[in-house]
Amino acid sequence: MKHLKPLLLIASALSLAACSDAEIAERDTQAAFSLTIAHINDTHSSFDPVASSFTANEMRVYNEFGGHPRILEQANYYRAQAEAENQSMLFLHGGDAWQGSAYFKLNEGRMNADILSRMQLDAMALGNHEFDLTNAHLNAFLSAVNFPMLAANVDASVDEDLKEQNNLLPYVVFAFDGFQKQRLTPGEPLPEAQHLVAVFGLALDDMPNIAPNTGDLVFANMVETAQSMVDEFHAMGIDKVVALTHIGKAIDVEIANQVNGIDVIVGGHSHTLLGDFSDLGMGYAGTYAEWVINPDGESATCVVQAGEYAQAIGRVEIDFTNDGRVLDCVGGNTLLSNDRFYRDSERTEDSYLGSEASAEVLDFVAVNPRIAVVEEEASMRAHIDSVYRPAMESAYGAELGMVPAQITHVRTPTETYPTGSEVAPLVALGQFQWAATEAVANVAGLQVDFALVGAGGVRQSLAQGLLREGDITLELLPFANFISIVPLTGAQITQLLQDTVAATVPSGAHAGKFPYGGNMRYRFDETQPGVTGEIVSVEINRGSLLEPEWHAVKADATYNVAMNSYNATGNDGWDVLYEAQKESSDRVDLAYVDGELTAFAVDRIERTSDGRLQVIYETDALQCDIAGVACNTDAMAVVEFLRDIYVPLRGAVLPLPYGVVEWNLEE
Fold first, then answer.
1. Residue 384, exposed/middle/buried by CB under 10 A (0-12, 13-18, 19+)?
2. What is the dihedral of CA 599, 601, 606, 611, to 10 degrees?
3. Least enclosed by CB within 10 Å: which of 72, 94, 156, 568?
4. Choice among 63-72, 151-160, 344-353, 458-467 with the minimum mean pLDDT
5. CATH 3.60.21.10 domain locations along the chain
6. Domain Calcineurin-like phosphoesterase spans what residues (predicted)?
7. Between residues 128 and 187, which one has the greater pLDDT?
8. Overall pTM > 0.70
9. Which residues contact 189 (CB under 8 A, 6 or more apart)?
10. 10 Å Cβ neighbour count for 623?
11. Model confidence over 451-508: pLDDT tens digits?
12. What mean pLDDT, rounded, does the chain reach?
């Protein structure tokens, strides 16, 4: 793939906003081929809209964003526009469609297959959460959908469930004649009179460390695979190359820095809403359609990603010259809002803005390219409501208490939320309080000191209104992980915090590993902005919830730390846990067996030849797939804490009265 010189590319991107209509028209006439890509990622079964808010004319407005029917409506609009202009178009999904809501817990992959097949997607990347069940479930999903899943660096040839699956592909090639497109079958002669676009997939090459249920799949090096794919396409005579990835924005940039010839990377995994949304009170996570210079210094790659939870859709347009050079790669993300606005998160009739104030918000939205009011696609909304919603609503169970105002979850501290998530510390405190009860301590044989939870294990904010058990077990903590109690030294705890927090500092880094504490707090100084920093203090609360007494962690002392089993084994960058347990462990795992809380003593953790982390028990192994075994103690701990301790103490479900993360930016 040939490109303009990088300086010309950068100049083109920087000068786009100043281009006149005539200049843009002249550019378009130079383009022998123009491709529009609409894209979404990390939708996580968000079939319904997400309660949210934004700033309009310096006023905070509470609304709803997205949901699959609204995404479909906007994608249909893009399609109709492309057809009217005879414009070539693809609609791509950057992976992680699975998990995230009660819909998924109840229907597993079946509803995802149904709804996504109605979206007219052209391809989807293989995300880590597509492994949250079993490869048999993934195989059923792949057999049911009407679009291919792409992962060029995944070998399924020896996996019992996926080895015969013909819809998990390394790449697909599309032949375009204007709006008309044809997906070519492998081995089919390439048409000479049409424009050819190759789309290949990349999955995380350390997937076994992030998603333990990968079976016998083999994951190859991402950089080597990507360059091999590009070289293969060029040898075939295809000079327009798209990488559809689920590896995170920061790694997308690394790939572009190390691989020649990828024109566009359409990404996922880091949940990055690229573009400047600061005028909406939502910050700036990086440039949309950022150009990254390739190692040859002659070519460059355009990188895009579209946020999370089906709240936004991205659209990028790539213009090519007749000899395969890229003229432009421009576009943006658009948040898709409903049209009913409130002045607070309670969203009562009293807080409705009214027609005049709503009209002002609508006027603001109408001239802002980063947000749009979009109706839900009616047939999909009706299908969800009639087929899936009744069972979902009946599954929520007993009431836990009222949430007076939304409790917000963000993965890392932001300008709006300087101490980070309001939800994750509540989850961690609930798991600590449960593990610290006399009943649990007697079974475990360990008295817990505090708890840690990774931001990625907490799936959403807590909306204003009545909170039920199912909001916790089906949506907030849906992974059915068991609680582990792991003895660690103060030095190991500090190193764990250092490794996991510092890894999230670079822009676009995967932030699911970011830690929050229950009954503990820490301070992090970002010593090199956007690069790294250091943990400067870690403290444990030896007082009460409402009257904390903070004491510094001692490096040589041992503390019993509660956390979910996923992180306790060292997954998702919590490598200190693996190192601490690879020789021997005093860890205890807790699950219910026939209704009785049972402790399973861990002997050590082993790393298998393919990189997976495996727990070795002293005697009987904890097997969550056996009848009578309930492993979701991570969620049940929070349910019992809210029901029996927190709501009676505070009268409602409220954020903690103190922050557990202090993040300082050194100038």
1. buried
2. 10
3. 156
4. 344-353
5. 6-383
6. 36-272
7. 128
8. yes
9. none
10. 12
11. 999 999 999 999 888 999 999 999 999 989 999 999 999 999 999 999 999 999 998 8
12. 93
**Cα 126 to Cα 289: distance, rounded to the nearest angstrom:** 22
Residue 212 has a pLDDT of 74
Helix (H, G, I), strand (E, B) or coil at 179: coil
Domain 6-383: assigned CATH number: 3.60.21.10
| Parts of the chain belonging to CATH 3.90.780.10 | 396-660
When pLDDT is cut at 50, 70 and 90, the band that residue 667 belongs to is low
Inter-axis angle of helices 109-117 and 135-144, nearest 10: 20
Q: Is the pLDDT of residue 24 over 70?
A: no
Domain 396-660 has CATH 2.160.10.10: no
The 3-state DSSP class for residue 126 equals coil
- For residue 330, the number of C-alpha atoms closer than 13 Å in the C-beta half-sphere is 17
CA–CA separation, 385 and 382 (whole Å): 5
pLDDT tens digits for 637-657?
999 999 999 999 999 999 999
Q: What residue has token string 């590009």?
A: 230
DSSP calls for 495-525: HHHHHHHHTT-STT---TT-EEEESEEEEEE
Radius of gyration of the CA atoms of the chain, in A = 25
Q: Is the separation of the CB atoms in 534 and 499 below 8 Å? A: no
Instruction: Estimate the share of the chain in helix, then strand, then coil, as percent rounded to the nearest 5.
Output: 30, 30, 40
Percent of the chain with pLDDT over 70: 95
